[in-house]
Amino acid sequence: MSNNRAEAWEAIGDGEARGGVLIVADHASAHVPPDIDLGIPAEIMTRHVAIDIGVAPLAKALCARMGWEAILGGVSRLVCDFNREEDAPGLIPLSSDGIDIAANHLDAEAREVRLARFFRPYHGAVAAAIARRRPALIVSLHSFTPRLETRPEERRPWEIGILYNQDERAARIAIPLLKAAGIATGDNKPYSGRLLNATMNRHAEGAGIPYLGIEVRQDLIGEEAGVTVWADRLAPVIGATWDRFAQKGPVSVRLQA
């Protein structure tokens, strides 16, 4: 399995084995470049506000097992949140789940520098991977916390959430498969892909490519053993969903804006 790395992204695999699946993980890293000081305690960088816990090892396990390809985000979401539109205020977050990031109060010039350094190269890498080997299915891989610090009373009991915006094609295949496997599955939960789906809106829905937005509860994949279990459970579901589209050949249905 090959590996390429740049400051803003890491590419895993060559996409040859089951060539139609590309995994995209926007929040796979907690890395903060040494020349950027966020002004927050180091301990916060191990928490969900900084990284989607477990996503990088899970993506790598799926790629190793199935021969799929992945693009992983190379910096913390607190440096640059790749799952936002370029003009979104939260792209360089000023706060996250009750934690203030005062150092992210940037002027227009400094914001542009961060966009040019991280955001555009990351999305350029995703676009290049899609153009190089147009996938029959894109998998957007994230993890979610069992509860938010700012809303501790709000239970998030699902093991997996499947998120989507306008294009529900892959979701409608995967959700019954997950439930049949006894997996507690949220349909556009723990939050709605109709509200937050920027990367898939751009690279999947914008190009008419079916996609699965998968959220895994982070306590299930925080350790190596859990990653192995969930790679075992998710691989056949993703594979079966991929099969439905791959058998029909390349799929391109451009949705209305």
From TrEMBL:
Protein name: N-formylglutamate amidohydrolase
Keywords: Hydrolase
Organism name: Sphingomonas chungangi
UniProt key word ATP-binding: no
The keyword Iron-sulfur is annotated on this UniProt entry: no
GO MF annotation, one: hydrolase activity
Entry-linked SUPFAM superfamilies: Zn-dependent exopeptidases
InterPro entries to which the protein is assigned, alphabetical: N-FG_amidohydro, UCP029730
Stored Pfam families: FGase
